[in-house]
Design goal:
Oligomer: single chain
Structural class: mainly alpha
Number of domains: 2
Keywords: Membrane, Transmembrane, Transmembrane helix
Shape: rod-shaped
Helix content: 55-70%
Strand content: under 5%
Order of helices and strands: HHH
Length: 78
């Protein structure tokens, strides 16, 4: 019992205050990811969709699908 005299206990969660800096940093990162999980997934979804669309439109053979009509009929008046 004498060994626990210098240790402080946090009020929330009962974690000990004498955790190392690395442990506290890792716990902070994990709590942030848990808090902002939806926003992170939302951002990654649009980032991956942008990369895939950019890759498809950069190839000339696929770019012709978006530019020319194969049968020559134009439905849009531009």
């Amino acid at each position: 019992m004498a060994r626990d005299v210098g240790r402080q206990v946090r009020a929330n969660g009962g974690r000990k205050r004498d955790e190392s800096l690395l442990t506290r940093m890792v716990n902070a990162v994990f709590s942030f990811v848990k808090f902002a999980e939806f926003e992170i997934l939302f951002f990654f979804f649009f980032l991956i969709a942008f990369i895939i669309f950019k890759d498809l439109t950069s190839r000339p053979e696929y770019n012709q699908i978006l530019v020319k009509k194969p049968d020559g009929m134009d439905f849009w008046a531009y």
